[in-house]
Amino acid sequence: MFVSNRSSNIKVIPVSWRFKECQSRYDLWTDCYISEFIVNSEWTLSCSFTKNSKQNSLLTICRRSTASKDLVSGSVSAYNESNYCEGQSSFSHLFKPNDKSALLDLRISVRENFLISGFIKIVEKFEECTNEEVESFCVKKEILQSQDSSFSSRRFEPLKELSDDFSLLLDPKTPFADVLLICESREFPAHKSILSARSPVFRAIFTNKMKASRDCEVNITDIDAPTVQAMLRYVYTGQTENLSDSLAASLLLAAHNYQLEGLKRVTCNYLKTNATPQNVLKLLVLGDLYTQDLKGFAMDFICDKYPEFSVLEKTQEWKALLKKRPNLVIEVLIFLIKSKDKKKDDNKIVILKGKP
């Protein structure tokens, strides 16, 4: 559905666009996937995206008829798999007669499973559009954005209220705590029922006849005190604050040890978003230890950033990995060889298809 004025010169079209590799085509020359969004019978959008790169995505706007002067603009936001907004972008392009397409830099990086949400405005026959019609569009656009923002806000209000209320239980002065988590000489008052509901590991501790259950104390020795504090905040509120690479790595360990799958997804997404050629081998090790999702991401990232192994083997990070985890090094080498062979096969296929 779209909103238009009475002359149909101005259209406002909502966009909800999910990016999936299996539903897109692969562009060999740019090493990106291309996803398509059909606006209507006249207009089509296509956008580049990758699995792991942070390069800006390019938006192509195409039209069927090229006779008139049309103005296309829009405002969109990109949301990752965890529904966090990764960036916003606005764009505008005036199509002159005989112009069929336009290529625009979105200035945000769209990756697989991201969702693009927003609005596209199309002013057809731009020269014929009056000032009154343009003003009418602006009013409608403001109303639509206000309604959408209000709906999103109302939809998440109960969850925010629940999160805020449960955060009060983290205050040591709040009563009703029935267990102490002890880590590095620090004590964290907590609640067996909440810990048990959120973590199968804590549930096992409190349901078995163990000394920790009888004494109402649990000694935490596998993670440090700041990580325990951050883990409890997530357990009680579903939120993480002030993440850094080191804290995210520690929380990934905590998520693995206490079977907190939601926290594992959050920390993985953070680490993937902040991946660099300098830290990707550390992410590879973390993925090898705790989650195949992060390991697969790191493998793809290495192939993307180090197409030639001679560049990778000269880095200090690679030399350190070779000493500490030789088996993982062998996996990387096999993956690089297979990836290179696949690209060669894809090139052959493209060349064969191009022959008459």
Question: What do you see in this structure?
Answer:
The protein is α+β, with helices and mostly antiparallel strands and 356 residues long. Helices cover 46% and strands 23% of the residues. The chain is built from twelve helices and 13 strands. The strands form three sheets. A five-stranded antiparallel beta sheet has the order 1-2-10-7-8, covered by helices on one side. It has a five-stranded antiparallel beta sheet with strand order 3-4-5-6-9, with no helix packed on it. It has a three-stranded mixed beta sheet with strand order 12-11-13. The N terminus is likely disordered. InterPro entries: BTB/POZ_dom (IPR000210), SKP1/BTB/POZ_sf (IPR011333). This is TD and POZ domain-containing protein 3.
